[in-house]
Amino acid sequence: MREVYITKEKFPDVVGKLMNQHRVFGPVFQGQYHEFAELKASDEIDLTYQNTRLSPKGLFHPHSERMFQFSLAKGDPEAGIVKEAPKDYSSRLILGMRPCDAMAFRLDDVNFDTTTIKDPWWTRRRATTAIVGLGCNQPCRSCFCTSVGTGPFDPSGLDALLTDVGDGFILQAITEKGQELLDGISDGGPVPAAATEKATQLRKSAEAQFVTQFDPKALAEKDMLELFNASFWDEVQFSCINCGTCTFLCPTCWCFDIQDEVCEDQGDRIRIWDSCMFPLFTVHGSGHNPRSQKLQRVRQRFMHKLKYYQDKYHDGVACVGCGRCVKYCPVNIDIREVARLMTATCVCPA
Amino acid sequence: MRAYTERIQEAARRLLTDNLVDVVIGFRKGTVPFMNEPFLAKNLDHVRQLYWDGNCGINLANYLAKRTDRVAIVAKGCDSRNIIVHLLEYQIKREQLYILGAPCHGMIDRRRMLASLDGKDPTHAEEKDGAITVAGQDFQVTLDRQEYLQENCSICIHRNPVIFDELLAEPVPEQQDVDRYPDVRQVEAMSPEQRWEYFENLISTCIRCYACRNACPLCFCPTCFVDESRPQWVGKSIDPTDTRTFHFLRAYHVAGRCTDCGACERACPVGIKMRQFTKKMEKDIKELYGYEAGVLPDQRPPLDTYRPDDQAPFIK
Amino acid sequence: MNNPYLPYPVRIESIVTETEDRNLRTIKLLFLNPEDEEKFKYIPGQFAELSVAGLGEIPIGIASSPTEKGFLKFTVNKVGKVSSHIHNMQPGDIMGVRGPLGNWYPWDLLEGKNIVIIGGGFAFTTLRSSIVYMLDPRNRSRFGEISVVYGARFPGLLLFKEELAAWEQRDDIKMHITVDSTDDPNWKYNVGFVPAVTKQKAPDSENSYAIICGPPIMIKFTLPVLTELGFPPERIISSLEMRMKCGIGICGRCNLGTEYVCKDGPVFTLEQLSRLPNEY
């Protein structure tokens, strides 16, 4: 696949031209932190960012999304019939996503895009969006991507990869979609040998900064029920306040609720992020709640990510090591510690 | 700070050994800089993990509601005030509690601290004599601790526990002549339109994760009004109406009960300053009723007292 | 590809109150677009999401049998917002149905086998579907002996009373209807709890499968009886209830270990359940 070199001077022009062809999204500083937003001007994008506070999952699976609409108007022959809501599926380009976050979409694909059932909104958005990643020259301390099978320059979830080599970016195509994108860029030049060398160095030094935190494979080998019944959950769960910070910030937490909302005689069926941390998540109409205890909910989150997902899809854990939950958990529950506890439990018979 | 840690461990060991309590609620050292984790010590082995420094901002009273065992708890000024609120609201009994009072120097605002490092990642931080030395790969800076306190701590007037069974250190001098409400007055001075816009902006990034509510010791309702489904008072989306309803109603619900411990702002993953709501409530309650939440163990919050002979006309 | 979240519009044909306490009503639904019926090909044991625009959806087992053409039947227990609303709807009203969802009783495995169906309370709906399905002339010969133990707290709480009476008259199905207690002097069936009646009346476990649906307490006490009768866990089949939203294994709510109850279930053998966390 082709690669081009774009100087930092020319970069805004490149972005500007791309904005003529696609809806372009990128990390934008919004007051206190960065978030992915549709660029209104080519210089809004800030590729000096470390990562966005919220994961970019909202670009494919928004916090609140109208699924359907309906009328409840008296006399309307169509009243009560739930119908598709119009959506904008015009071509999108996401610029500067971290490789871990892009990898998360691949992990989520197994949920939203199966051989038998396809989530129409997720799959349409995935198909009409190209993702250009930005390699992580300086991973943060709470990241652990290399422990969960990805890395600071992992191209797996990307269509193209940007590497910041100082004076410019190397843009490499990864997929056909990425190649097409590159073909349309006229402001790039051949990659200077020094830049290639710098990129290799950056990559090596970034990767060298990681310490292996835990071994997902060791978790795969554990007995599910033994982990489920392990005694350490009691200690893990104590500090949890059952808020949705970890799940809402997480790029691989996809759980949602479906609700109807009505205003006068028009209504929407919407889906909204939900969280296994919330007691209401599992409560039956009868009042029975299979996960009424905080311990059960805390355990569910970690077991789902690190064990159930692995056992179901045999393709690693449902975590990309972005470290958001580590950084923003209000009570410092650290998934790396929990994973270590999970790998350390004894499987040997007493 | 090491002295506090030693005193906490000593007290915990003694209380557990003498079987005066079943558990001790404190902190253990966090896994990331400027964070510690609330921790339940159940045995002598656990006691070794108990820890204290300027990153113990989480309000531990939040872990007390509806406990049935005998609990020792480490309590800063604000935690102790929330313990009083809990006692007044029957969330725990005084005889269940052994309060290890921690005179407080104010807790460190982790977000502000990290922001000041300009993207550099700290690996290590140490507090000494009013300064914090922060170090990471290729850098080390020493910062004035006072400059990096949580905002609520910098205007705190109850740093010493108001209720305790023993103190972990000599009382600290309380801050004098603190103006607690300059920001509230600023909002009060706005026109209704400005104020509306101000609040709209304030909560515009809310993701409805309820970290603020769940971190708050006052939010112990078995089912929060936002979770009720029959009737459903509040929609679950991030429609501004629903987000507004949540924040406004929550603020009113904590009126006269909020101790300005800052747990809500500390927990918020998107940095919303929701104390702008609760502080206005606090100010009003103070001005209208002369009441300060969680200071006197025998004085109920004004909004949960009812007297048939109440002179105020609204009750009739 | 159809949007799997989009309900088919249906019209309520009739509403029948099933029980004395009026908490269970059976609604009969007709598809507004006849081609939707073609798309809604279901197998006994599956469920569907009943949709009321403005209130939401509820997952309910399909009570009709695919051998009954032209309509769907659901027996709805009045519990929450949506189910209460459905109870107050009128014939002619429009609502939605989405499905069929989930797996079904393993009819391939059940072929040639004796089948004992054990049901309690209002969980009899997919069992009704199964019985009608098996008794259909085209299907009856595929199965061995069919026995049914069906219990309710008192006679007024039994569902599908007319059909129960009709099945009682047949010789190709052994009905064992029971109530916990009754003061009706004309009650001609059993009095006793489901586990006890199962113990007395269940067929030999040899070459037999048990399908059991009911309240947790009934299941808890009946399982040991089945084990005692020699049913191995892989021949005891149950259907789980969970809070669900999407019904298609995407929204994550009904996750139980490696399974999504809405998609990988709701039908599991006892053997499968023994390998999953017991959070249901």
Tertiary shape of chain A: globular
Number of extended strands of chain A: 11
Total discrete domains of chain B? 2
Per DSSP, what share of the residues of chain A sits in E-state strands of 2 or more residues? 15-25%
- Based on CA atoms alone, the radius of gyration of chain A comes out at 22 Å
Name the chain pair whose interface involves the most residues.
Answer: A-C, 48 and 43 residues
What percent of residues of chain B are in strands?
5-15%
Helix content of chain A: 25-40%
| Termini separation of chain B | 53 Å
- Stretches of chain A where pLDDT falls below 50 for ≥5 residues? none
Mean pLDDT of chain B: 94
> Which structural class do you get from the secondary structure elements of chain B?
alpha/beta
Strand order of the largest sheet of chain A: 1-9-8-7-6-2-3
Largest sheet of chain A: 7 strands, mixed
Number of strands of chain B: 9
Describe this structure in words.
The complex is a heterotrimer of chains A (350), B (316) and C (280). With 350 residues, chain A is of the alpha/beta class. Chain A has helices spanning 11-21, 99-112, 120-127, 176-183, 193-208, 216-221, 224-228, 233-237, 245-249, 294-313, 324-328, 335-344; strands at residues 3-7, 23-30, 33-38, 64-71, 83-84, 92-97, 129-134, 160-164, 168-173, 256-263, 266-273. Chain A folds into 2 domains: 3-208, no CATH class; 216-344, no CATH class. In chain A, a hairpin with a 2-residue loop joins strand 2 and strand 3 (33-38). The model of chain A has no long low-confidence stretch (mean pLDDT 94). By secondary structure, chain B is an alpha/beta fold. Chain B has 2 domains: 1-107 and 155-174, no CATH class; 179-307, no CATH class. Chain B contains 11 helices and 9 strands. The N and C termini of chain B lie far apart (53 Å). The model of chain B has no long low-confidence stretch (mean pLDDT 94). Chain C has 2 domains: 8-101, Beta Barrel (Elongation Factor Tu (Ef-tu), domain 3); 107-239, Nucleotide-binding domain of ferredoxin-NADP reductase (FNR) module (Rossmann fold). The mean pLDDT of chain C is 94. The interface between A and C is large, with 48 and 43 residues.
